[in-house]
Amino acid sequence: MTAAPTPQLDPATVDLLGVLAYGELTAFERLATDARFAPTIADKHALASMAAAEFEHYRCLSEHLRSSGVDPEEAMRPFVAPLDGFHDLTPPNDWLESIIKAYVGDGLATDFYREVAAFLPEGRTRELVLDTLADTGQASFAVAKVHEATARDPAVAGRLALWARRLVGEALIQAQRVAVERDALTGLLVGGSGDLAGVARLLSRLTDNHTARMKALGLQPS
Amino acid sequence: MTAAPTPQLDPATVDLLGVLAYGELTAFERLATDARFAPTIADKHALASMAAAEFEHYRCLSEHLRSSGVDPEEAMRPFVAPLDGFHDLTPPNDWLESIIKAYVGDGLATDFYREVAAFLPEGRTRELVLDTLADTGQASFAVAKVHEATARDPAVAGRLALWARRLVGEALIQAQRVAVERDALTGLLVGGSGDLAGVARLLSRLTDNHTARMKALGLQPS
User: Are the beta carbons of A48 and B36 separated by less than 8 Å?
Assistant: First the structure.
């Protein structure tokens, strides 16, 4: 059987798919790990289902790289240190912190995917990035659980708000690291945004959406 | 839409599906957790893929219970303590121990599924149990990795053989606990095997298969 000819991917797109794929793979591992500490079987089921959805995203991204003639491992390798670094520096201390991490992380990732998809030419890669936007169910689950917890003990809200802020801070530090090291990917974002002012506006949109998510949780955004 | 009438499940079958479902769910969590410590992205990919396959098994079993009018949480609850107990008492100390645990655990589970399927009446439940027999890829991956490791350092073989023996010992202790507490399930196994001598022969077949797996790994079975 001869494979259909596949379009070549440019280095920036390979980087983009690599960082998304490794992001999904690590999200899968961390969610599945956190599921072990779920207080009830229903909570465990919810977190494990989200983890399985992240794995499916990873599998699709990885398969797309492979079918385009790119070794997924090679594409992911530059992003192992920043993504592992993010997770190693932000181990949740309890079940609620796990939920916030899933919600904040998934929210930022989804917003980022949506922004980036607009920069890609129409075609399979763009479709795939848009597919991974599909809600994995974190949002409504997290909102319900956090509201339950803060209704029981209002003092929890301050701690969780600080935790969410720390997560965003650590994510920005690692994103900065990636931006410095990966010229092609940075070029894609700058080119897609128009210029550096465009990148600043993109970051501002991401921050606004994060603030809206914090409000949905009933937490102070800063 | 009115659902098609679903056959009622007897208590022994509910127990069986409950223990299988929670077994798959915990296998998923532990494999996914162990994937974090994989030395290469390829190893991580392999373990995460196995974990995702276990989750899919869990999802099918859980869905079958629900569509038969049984709350999956209720069905799994009696098996939380023995299965969590098994995993809490057998945390792998390194990557190779994780692989052995996946291989030994999956092998025992698969053998057990095959034996039990023979006791079930023909129908959806039996098909489902047979479906979960599908190889999740542990076997060839584990055999390759363990052979690589023992070729590099033959001294590793003794430690891994002891580890495998401990896993089987702990699994038997928990199985014994389940047998004492769950009369209906035990009845299904004894009835299906014919009598207690039949159960002894079943255990002996499970042990023989375990020994064969240890040999495939190049490890002393005892």
Answer: no
Q: Which residues contact B28 (CB under 8 A, 6 or more apart)?
A: A32, A48, A52, B51, B52, B54, B55, B58
Q: Which residue is closest to A50 within chain B, CA to CA? A: B55
| B95-134 residues touching A, CB cutoff 8 A | none
Find residues 14-43 of chain B whose CB sits inside 8 Å of chain A. 22, 25, 28-30, 32-33, 35-36, 40-42
A81 touches chain B (CB under 8 A): no
Q: What are phi and psi of A137, to 5 degrees?
A: 95, 0
The pTM (predicted TM-score) of the whole model is 0.82
The reply to whether residue B29 touches residue A35, judged by beta carbons under 8 angstroms, is yes
CB contact under 8 A, A29 and B42: no
Burial of A145 (0-12, 13-18, 19+ CB in 10 A): buried
The ranges assigned to domains in chain B are 11-216
CATH of B11-216, one of 2.40.440.10, 3.40.50.1370, 1.20.1260.10, 2.40.50.90: 1.20.1260.10
DSSP classification of residue B192: H
Q: What number is the ipTM of this complex?
A: 0.73
- In contact, B180 and B8? CB cutoff 8 Å: no
Query: What pLDDT tens digit does each residue of chain B (222 aa) get?
Result: 445 545 588 999 999 999 999 999 999 998 898 888 888 898 899 889 888 988 998 999 999 999 999 999 999 999 999 999 999 999 999 989 999 998 888 888 888 888 888 888 888 888 888 887 766 666 778 889 999 999 999 999 999 999 998 998 888 888 888 888 888 888 888 888 778 788 888 888 888 898 999 999 999 876
Regarding the domain delimited by A11-217, which CATH topology (the fold level of the hierarchy) does it fall under?
Ferritin (1.20.1260)
